[in-house]
Design a protein that fits this description.
heterodimer, A: 350 residues, B: 645 residues, alpha/beta
C-alpha cells in the first residue's frame, strides 16, 4: 500500500510501461549471459573490443537456428530498434509532444539512412549507440533529480561505455568525476568526493573485477593492454576518412547545434545544460578521436551516436513547444539529407 | 468496614450518584481543577496553559493536566470526586469484589475505564474515572437502573484489571491466535502433513541421488543457482526502486504542520522491555520529545513481573501519569510478542505502536503515521517507520549493521511497498490500527520474528501495509556474540514464518496473489536458505578454482554454468555495490569504503543461520534476548540526559 499524501505528491505521469522495463532488463540479462560461456572457456571474447557483437553472436549460437553472425546481428539490431522506437514514442508523449508530432518524429528518426543502415547491415555501431542512449539520461538525471537512484543509474551505465569498445571507455573516469562533483557535499568535502566518486566508478571496477575472475588476471591485462590502450596511440587518419566523417557530421549533426545552442540560453527550472551539451559532445569526441588516433570508424558511427543520444535526451527533457517544433524539423531535415547523393554514399561506406 | 461506608455513601449519600444525571465531563474537570488551584496544588500559569491545551487538543482537562505532568493522577481524581460529590476509592486499599467481574466485559472495563466495585443490596457500585454518557449507557445496559458510581484513578482501574484478569489475559495472550487460527500459529513448528511432505520429498531426493547421482547433483546445483539468480534480481529491482527520492517524500513536513491537534486520536505506545533498566532514561527522553498532545498519548511500559530491577527503575524515574507499567505474568513462551499481546488488553488508543527501550523515534512519527492512516483507507492496517542506528561508526559490526538496515528500510521495504507486496515488519516502530491488530489476534507469541509473520497474516486477511518516511534510531548491536544471538533469532523466525505459511501454500497464493507469494518466498523464505547453503557453495567455488576446472565442471553444464558464473562474479559484486549505495540516502558517506567488506558480514550471517537451524529443531520458541545499552554512544547519551536532568 503506497501511502500518498495529496500535499506531498503532485499528479504523476507514468514514465515507462512495465513492458519496456521488463523487456529491457530481460534483454540485458540474456545479453550478459550469452557471452559468459565463451568467456569462461577463455575464448577471445572482445578481442577487438566488439563485446556486443560477441554477445549477439553467442546469443544466436544458443538459439535453435543456424544464422550466420551477420544475420544474428541484423535481427538483434531490428529488435533493438523496434523497442527503442516504441520507447521513444512513449517518452515523447510523456514529455508533452502531440501524438502527431511524436509519430512524425519517430518516423523521421527511423527513416534516417544511418538507422536503416545499421539495421540492414547489422553494423555493430549499435553498441556505441546503446552507450550514448544510456549515458545522456544518466547525466540528465544526475543534474535534475540527483537522488540515490540517479547516482546508481549513472554508475551502472558507465560500464556500458567500456563494453562499447576502446573508443568510449576513456570517457568513464571524467564522467565519474562529473557524477561525483554533481553532489554538493562532494564539492566541499574531500571525503564526500571520494565516496561519491567510488559510487560512480565502482560498477565499472566491478565489471573489471568480474573479468579478472572469469578470464584470469593475465587475460584481463592482455585485453586492456592489447585492445584498449593501443587505441590511444596517435596515428594520423587518412584524409578520405576524415573528409567523410566531417561531411556527414556537418550536414547531419551540426544543424542540431542550433537547437542545443538555443536551449543553452533558454534557462528555466527544467534547464539542465550538461546533458544537452553531451548530446553533441559525444559524437564530436568520436570524430576527434578518429582524427587524432586514427580510429577506424565508419561515418555512420558519430551520426548513430548522436541520434541515440539526441533521442534519449528528448525522452527525458521536457522542451518548450518551439524547441519541440525545431527538433522535429531538424530530424526531418537530417533524415532527408541522409538520403541525398552527397551523404548516402558516405554512410554506405566503400 | 470502610468500603461499606463508602458504598452506602455512594448509593444514598448524595444526589450526584444518580446514574441518570446529565453531567458533562468538562464541567466536572474544570471544577476539579479549580479545587486544586484553590488548594495551591495547581499553579496559575499551569492552569491557564492547561485550559488552552484542553481547547486546542479537545481533550479532558484532567487528561491534559496529568499528561503534562502538572498534577498527580490521584490528586486530580480525588478532586474530581469532590467536585462531583462522589466518594473516591483507592482500589489498592479497597479492592473490588472479585465475584462481580465478568470475563465477557473485559474489553469494556479497559475501554471505559470502569470496574464493578461492590454489590450492595442489589445495587451495583461501579468504580470509574469518568461518569460520562458512555459509562452510564454501558452500566444501564449491563445492570439496569440499579447502579451508581464512585470515582477512582486510572491507575487503580488499571491495577484492578491486571489483578483480576491476570491469568485470563495471560492465557489469551499466549493462545489467542492458536484458538482462532491454529494453522497460523508457530506453536507447532512443523505440522504432521508437513512432516509427511518433507519426508516424501527427502525420500524421493535420496532415491534420485542413489539412482542417478550425477544427474541429481547437477539438478541440485541448477536449483541452487536459479534460486541465487532470482533472489539477486529481486533484490536489485527493489534496491533500484527504493532508491528513488519520491518514495522518501510520501508525507511532507507541510502536511504534518497542517494537522489539527484536536483531530488527533488517542495513541498507545507499547514499550516491551526486559532487564533494560539502564536505558530507561533514554526512552523517557525520546517519548517526551514526541510531537503529540500529551493528553492523547498512552504509554505502556511492558515489563515482566520478575524484572524487579526495571520496574523499580521505571518507578524511580517518576513517569508522567500517562505512563503505565504493565506487569506480564511469567509463563512459557517468554517472548516479546506474548508480552505485547498481554499489554494490548489495556490499550485504548485508536492506533498503537511499539518501540524498543533504546529507541529514538523522530518527534513527528506518530503524526506521520496518523496521516498515513487518514489517507490510506480503512484497509490500511499498519505502517512501518524506518529504522536506523545512532552508533553507526562505533566499530566494523555497527557499520555493517547500519549499511544493512539502511538498505532494508530505506530501499527494500519502500521497494516492496511500491510493488504492492506484503511487507515483513521490523521489530519496532510499526504503527497499527488497533481494531485490525485485534482482529488478527495481534502477534504470534510462539514466533520469534512475530513482526515479519504479522505482515504476512495481515495481508492474508485482506489488510494493506505501508511505509512512512520517518525514522527511529536504535542502538546497533556492536558485540559479536550478541549480534550472532540476535541474528540467529531473526533467521529462526523467518524459518518459522515460512513453515507456518507453507502449511497451505495454495491458500496463501489465493489470499495474497502472485506478487505476495513471490515476495514471501524470495524475501522471507529464500534468504535463510541461502545463508545456510552459502558456505557449501563457497566451498565448491574454492575447490573449483584450487583443483582446476575439470574436477567440478560437470556439476555446471550450460546454461547453468553461465548462470553460476554470473552469480559468482557479477551478482555478488553488485550486491556489494547496492550495499554501499545504501549509505547515500542518509549521507553516511563514511560507510562507503567500509561497504567493500560486506562479504565478511555475509559469513557472519551464515554462522547465525546454522545456529538458527539448530535452535529451530532444538528450541524453536526460545527468545534470544538482544542486549541493549552496550554502546559507548548510548552511555554518552545517557550521561547527557543525566546532566540535563
Amino acid at each position: 500500500m503506497s501511502v500518498q499524501i495529496a500535499a506531498a505528491s503532485p499528479v504523476e505521469k507514468t514514465s515507462a510501461r512495465p513492458f519496456f522495463v521488463a523487456g529491457g532488463v530481460g534483454a540485458l540479462l540474456v545479453a550478459c549471459l550469452s557471452f559468459l560461456p565463451a568467456a569462461r572457456g577463455g575464448a577471445s571474447v572482445g578481442q577487438d573490443g566488439n563485446w556486443l557483437a560477441e554477445l549477439v553472436a553467442r546469443l544466436a549460437g544458443a538459439l535453435p537456428v543456424s544464422w550466420p553472425p551477420e544475420t544474428a546481428l541484423m535481427v538483434f539490431a531490428a529488435i533493438f530498434m523496434s523497442l527503442l522506437i516504441s520507447w521513444l514514442y512513449e517518452r515523447l508523449l510523456y514529455n508533452d509532444w502531440t501524438t502527431l508530432g511524436a509519430l512524425v518524429f519517430v518516423a523521421a528518426f527511423t527513416a534516417n539512412a544511418a538507422i536503416a543502415g545499421i539495421v540492414a547491415s547489422g553494423q555493430w555501431a549499435i553498441a556505441t549507440m546503446v552507450a550514448c542512449i544510456l549515458v545522456v539520461p544518466g547525466i540528465r538525471r544526475i543534474e535534475s533529480v540527483g537522488d540515490v537512484q540517479a547516482n546508481m543509474s549513472f554508475g551502472l551505465v558507465l560500464p556500458f561505455l567500456f563494453l562499447a569498445g576502446p573508443a568510449m571507455a576513456p570517457l568513464i573516469p571524467p564522467l565519474a568525476l562529473f557524477g561525483a562533483l554533481a553532489d554538493r557535499d562532494a564539492r566541499r568535502d574531500i571525503r564526500a568526493f571520494i565516496a561519491m566518486y567510488l559510487v560512480a566508478i565502482m560498477p565499472t571496477l566491478l565489471v573489471l573485477a568480474g573479468m579478472v575472475g572469469m578470464f584470469g588476471l593475465d587475460e584481463t591485462i592482455r585485453i586492456v593492454t592489447e585492445i584498449y590502450v593501443p587505441a590511444f596511440t596517435p596515428v594520423p587518419a587518412g584524409e578520405g576518412a576524415i573528409h567523410a566523417l566531417s561531411t556527414v557530421a556537418v550536414y547531419t549533426i551540426l544543424p542540431f547545434a542550433l537547437l542545443i545552442g538555443a536551449y543553452m540560453f533558454a534557462v528555466d527550472r527544467r534547464w539542465q545544460p550538461v546533458s544537452a551539451v553531451a548530446v553533441l559532445a559525444l559524437p564530436l569526441y568520436l570524430i576527434l578521436g578518429a582524427r587524432f588516433f586514427g580510429w577506424p570508424m565508419a561515418p555512420t558511427l558519430p551520426l548513430v551516436a548522436f541520434l541515440g543520444g539526441f533521442a534519449s535526451w528528448l525522452s527525458v527533457a521536457r522542451l518548450r513547444p518551439n524547441f519541440r517544433r525545431l527538433a522535429l524539423a531538424l530530424m526531418i531535415l537530417t533524415a532527408a539529407l541522409s538520403w541525398t547523393p552527397k551523404i548516402l554514399p558516405l554512410l554506405a561506406g566503400p | 468496614m470502610m468500603s461499606a461506608q463508602l458504598a452506602a455513601s455512594a448509593v444514598y449519600g448524595n444526589e450526584n450518584a444518580s446514574p441518570r444525571e446529565d453531567a458533562t465531563s468538562p464541567l466536572w474537570h474544570l471544577r476539579a481543577a479549580q479545587l486544586l488551584f484553590d488548594r495551591g496544588q495547581l499553579k496559575p500559569g499551569d492552569f491557564g496553559s492547561a485550559i488552552a491545551d484542553e481547547l486546542a487538543w479537545r481533550s479532558d482537562l484532567g487528561a491534559v493536566l496529568i499528561g503534562k505532568g502538572l498534577v498527580r493522577p490521584h490528586d486530580f481524581y480525588r478532586a474530581l470526586a469532590e467536585a462531583q460529590e462522589l466518594p473516591f476509592v483507592d482500589l489498592l486499599k479497597e479492592p473490588p469484589d472479585p465475584e462481580l467481574f465478568f470475563s465477557e466485559d473485559r474489553a469494556n472495563y479497559a475501554a471505559l475505564k470502569i470496574v464493578p466495585w461492590r454489590l450492595f443490596d442489589g445495587h451495583w457500585i461501579l468504580a470509574t474515572v469518568d461518569t460520562g454518557a458512555p459509562q452510564r449507557e454501558w452500566a444501564e445496559r449491563r445492570f439496569g437502573p440499579n447502579f451508581s458510581f464512585v470515582i477512582t484513578s486510572p491507575f487503580d482501574i488499571f491495577w484492578a484489571q491486571q489483578d483480576h484478569f491476570r491469568d485470563f489475559d495471560n492465557l489469551r495472550a499466549r493462545e489467542g491466535l492458536l484458538e482462532w487460527k491454529p494453522d497460523h500459529s508457530a506453536k507447532t513448528t512443523i505440522t504432521a502433513p508437513q512432516k509427511i511432505a518433507f519426508g516424501i520429498a527427502g525420500a524421493l531426493y535420496l532415491l534420485f541421488l542413489i539412482a542417478a547421482p550425477s544427474a541429481c547433483m547437477v539438478a541440485t546445483m541448477a536449483a541452487i543457482t536459479i534460486l541465487y539468480t532470482v533472489t539477486f534480481t529481486f533484490k536489485a529491482v527493489l534496491t533500484w526502486l527504493g532508491a528513488s527520492r519520491k518514495l522518501d517524500m510520501n508525507i511532507t513536513d507541510a502536511a504534518v504542520a497542517e494537522l489539527i491537534d484536536a483531530e488527533l486520536p488517542v495513541y498507545t505506545v507499547l514499550v516491551p522491555m526486559y532487564r533494560e533498566a539502564k536505558v530507561l532514561p533514554l526512552l523517557f527522553d525520546a517519548l517526551k520529545k514526541l510531537d503529540y498532545p500529551a493528553s492523547k498519548l498512552e504509554v505502556k511500559l511492558v515489563l515482566e513481573e520478575d524484572d524487579k530491577e526495571t520496574i523499580d527503575a521505571a518507578k524511580a524515574l517518576n513517569p508522567p501519569g500517562t505512563f503505565e507499567i504493565v506487569r506480564v505474568p511469567p509463563s512459557y513462551p517468554k517472548t516479546k510478542p506474548k508480552a505485547c499481546n498481554y499489554a494490548l488488553f489495556f490499550a485504548r488508543g485508536e492506533f498503537v505502536t511499539i518501540y524498543d527501550a533504546e529507541d529514538q523515534p523522530e518527534p513527528d512519527q506518530l503524526k506521520k503515521a496518523f496521516l498515513a492512516f487518514q489517507t490510506g483507507g480503512p484497509e490500511l492496517a499498519c505502517v512501518q517507520a524506518r529504522l536506523n542506528y545512532f552508533n553507526r561508526s562505533e566499530n566494523w559490526l555497527t557499520r555493517m549493521f547500519t549499511l544493512e538496515y539502511s538498505q532494508w528500510f530505506d530501499f527494500l521495504l519502500p521497494g516492496l511497498d511500491k510493488l504492492k507486496m506484503p511487507i515483513p515488519f521490523g521489530g519496532t516502530s510499526n504503527h497499527f490500527r488497533l481494531k485490525a491488530l485485534r482482529k488478527v489476534r495481534a502477534w504470534d507469541p510462539y514466533n520469534v520474528t512475530e513482526d515479519a509473520d504479522l505482515g504476512i497474516r495481515l495481508a492474508q486477511e485482506g489488510f494493506t501495509i505501508g511505509v512512512i518516511n520517518s525514522t527511529t534510531f536504535e542502538e546497533a548491536n556492536g558485540v559479536l556474540g550478541s549480534w550472532i544471538k540476535q541474528r540467529s533469532r531473526w533467521i529462526k523466525g523467518y524459518m518459522q514464518t515460512w513453515l507456518v505459511h507453507m502449511r497451505h501454500p495454495i491458500d496463501l497464493w489465493r489470499k495474497v496473489g502472485w506478487r505476495g507469494t513471490f515476495s514471501f518466498h524470495f524475501f522471507i523464505g529464500a534468504p535463510p536458505l541461502l545463508h545456510l547453503i552459502n558456505p557449501i557453495v563457497w566451498g565448491i567455488t574454492i575447490a573449483f578454482y584450487v583443483l582446476g576446472d575439470g574436477q567440478f565442471s560437470w556439476l555446471f553444464p550450460e546454461p547453468i554454468g553461465t548462470l553460476a558464473t554470473f552469480n559468482l562474479f557479477f551478482a555478488n559484486l553488485l550486491l556489494v555495490y547496492f550495499g554501499i549505495v545504501a549509505a547515500l540516502k542518509r549521507r553516511y558517506l563514511d560507510l562507503v569504503p567500509a561497504g567493500l567488506m560486506q562479504p565478511l558480514y555475509w559469513v557472519l550471517h551464515s554462522i547465525a543461520a546454522w545456529k538458527a537451524l539448530w535452535q529451530l529443531i532444538a528450541n524453536p520458541h526460545y527468545w534470544e534476548k538482544t542486549e541493549h545499552g552496550t554502546s559507548a554512544v548510548t552511555d554518552r547519551k545517557l550521561e547527557t540526559i543525566r546532566r540535563a536532568a
